[in-house]
Amino acid sequence: MAGIGTSGLILEEGLIFEKGSSGRVGYSLPPLDVPQKGIDTLIPPSLQRMDLEGLPEVSEVEVVRHFVRLSQWNYSIASGPYPLGSCTMKYNPRVNERVARLPGFSQIHPLQPEELSQGALFLMYELERYLAEISGLDRVTLQPAAGAQGELTGMMMIRAYHTAQGNPRRIVLVPDSAHGTNPSSSALSGYQVQALPSNDRGLIDPAQVRKLMNDKVAAIMITNPNTLGLFEEEICRICEIVHSHGGLVYGDGANLNAILGITRPGDMGFDVLHLNLHKTFSTPHGGGGPGAGPVAVRAILAPFLPIPVVNKEGDRLRLNYDLPRSIGKVRAFHANFAVLVRAYAYILSLGAAGLKRIGQMATLNANYLRRQVESSFHIPFNRLCKHEFVATDERQQDKGVKTLDIAKRLMDKGFHPPTIYFPLIVPGALMIEPTESESKESLDQFISALKEIAEEAERDPSQVTSAPHLTKVSRLDEVRAAREPILRWKG
Ligand SMILES: *Cc1c(COP(=O)(O)O)cnc(C)c1O
Looking at the domain assignment, is residue 8 inside a domain? Predict the structure, then answer.
């Protein structure tokens, strides 16, 4: 089978400032044959800068080639698999991009009056219902801009709820396998974080929860499936224990694709759940945003939802700001609306059966991969997983090959590396999430690459420890890049 690799016609490219020559222009149009308006009538002289020396003067083809060449140095989901654990870098259907760009959606202004934005409000109203149904909860806010902000919003609602009961409480329990945003969101909401150790099966032990649970604990934050890709088998009992002490259960639903259409967090006992539309519901997020982190809640938390909420009165939709116990606004206007449009289109185009197939395929792909590489890599919790699994460098270590080396060598073979050194409870973790959108053939290519690397580590470890060899640049000084970034070109 042909590898996908990165060698070949990837062209060298300098800075655009180093190109072109004086007087060269980036367009070719016939001479102006209408009276020319002076620049001064278009831009007042006080706003014109006369001293702009050293701007690139380049032709159209130079500009096009420059940016196309740079784009070819990038890896993206449009070039190949992106098995970055916990990130759900799946391929998102282009039809949802088309829908989000329809002028009726893309040209709408957030200050447009309600009478002129009924379609947008309808979409928000319906999307809220769909996400509530998917989560097994009652109400949803679409406002938060990302998962972490969804967590903060959820924790603020939990705090408002406890405060309304007479005592905000002090502590939030967070398992040691949690995403780093979980303890951060708890702390930002004024809570003390108490770590909950995982047991030797990588799961939360209900006995531990019982021991730590009391009336000072406001909530527990749980990711299910957890960051090891394992389903919390005792989830219902854990929720019961927390509820019996008056606490609430927060669910981190960033990676909902594992259970989509198969089971619902609300049915397990969760009271609050954020979803990452940019992971599960068709907004690409390799470039860092924008995203959306809607939060679903049980009815007891509905009075605390951010304002405004979309209400339906007869066949009219209205924005309701009259929620006296609301935590307020967490984001300007109506959130990242285009992300909501993509999610809505995605859910409608797939339907219930299609959504369920996401859960099935995400799980099948991860388990196929796990079983195919278990002979080459140590997998600490090697049993049925959900959307991802965690391998380690334990078997390669005696040859001096570490997780970072394996990740770098994968780049030579044409793959984006998986998430590494997370979750923190697994030393040398390689966290692999193939996602539901990869075919068996593409999984097989990735498996071959991983197996080749395991063999190289045995036979010729220096090939791995000095990787990558075929990329534009090899090992970067990441500390220096972060501490002394050079952000400005000087001629
Ligand atoms: C990605 C992720 C988050 C954070 O989401 P952002 O949108 O990046 O803020 C939180 N929890 C888990 C488990 C995640 O995978």
Answer: no
Q: Cα(49) to centroid of ligand 1, in Å?
A: 44
Cβ(400)–Cβ(364) below 8 Å: no
**Domain housing 282:** 95-349
> In the chain, how many domains are there?
3
Of the chain, the percentage scoring pLDDT greater than 90 comes to: 83
Q: What contacts 144, CB < 8 A, 6 or more positions away?
A: 150, 152, 153, 274, 292, 293, 294, 295, 330, 331, 335
- Relative to the CA of 149, which ligand 1 atom is closest? 9
Strand partners, 389: 432
According to the per-residue pLDDT averaged within each range, which of 53-57, 190-194, 289-293 is highest? 190-194
Same domain, 234 and 326: yes
The per-residue pLDDT for range 235-278, each reduced to its tens digit, is: 999 999 999 999 999 999 999 999 999 999 999 999 999 999 99
Question: Which residues surround ligand 1 with Cβ inside 6 Å?
Answer: 86, 146-148, 179, 181, 223, 252, 254-255, 276, 291, 293
Q: Is residue 368 part of a domain?
A: yes
Q: Ligand 1 centroid to 159 CA: how many Å?
A: 21
**Binning pLDDT at 50, 70 and 90, where does residue 312 land?**
very high
The answer on 292 and 255 residing in a single domain is yes
User: Looking at ligand 1, which atom is closest to the CA of residue 148?
Assistant: 9
Structure confidence by residue, pLDDT tens digits, 114-123: 999 999 999 9
Q: Is residue 5 domain-resident?
A: no
Same domain, 274 and 302: yes
pTM metric for this prediction: 0.92
Strands of the sheet containing 272-275, edge to edge, are: 139-141, 295-297, 272-275, 248-253, 217-222, 171-175, 192-196
The verdict on 106 and 213 lying in the same domain is yes
- Look at residue 248 and tell me if it is in a domain: yes
